[in-house]
Amino acid sequence: MLGTQNVGLFLLTALVLNATPGVDLLLTLARTLQGGMRAGFAAALGISSGCVIHTLAAALGLAALLAASALAFTVIKWLGAVYLLWLAFGMLRAALRGTAENLPAQGSSNAPAGWRRIYAQGFITNVLNPKVALFFLALLPQFIATDAPSKPLAFLFLGGLFIVSGTLFLFAVVLAANYARRLAAGAAARRVLNGGGGVLFALLAARLALTDRTL
Length: 215
Prior knowledge:
With 215 residues, this protein is an all-alpha fold. It has helices at residues 7-19, 23-35, 37-60, 62-68, 70-97, 111-127, 130-139, 151-183, 187-210.
């Protein structure tokens, strides 16, 4: 279809990759456990929107530029690491204060603005992760036929499949995490979730800062 091949294997590969712990999965979990189901959905949709940017970049060849330019890779990498550290700081501060990190309460008047902020967090963390761009550049061509009539269109088709499957997977994660959240309600649980999330995001920032351009 559209010059692609082994689509079933591609979907299986996408499922395995989406289930691998990383920034996207941990952010979705953290926001769901802290703010509930709608907060988790907002984070998941932000992440999926970031994947749209990476798909377009791969189709247009911009990801190849990122792979070839050490300076571009380093700049994006450090921007992403700094942003993750900022998120970690917010979580750790909320843990020390015993608050919910100003996440929106469902039904409150400022909830839409809060969910937009969480959506933006998901979008920014995904877009500022250069490894995602390199992943799209390395994975998608393996499932595009050499005689594909339009390779950019094949890139977009596979990227769309990855985004849809990834979004559905994250939605399932949100539903499961929201159920767990109901079992562990209370101020003490919020402190643990914020503190644990802050430490994890600090570690992810360090890992991103130390990464190189190899997959």
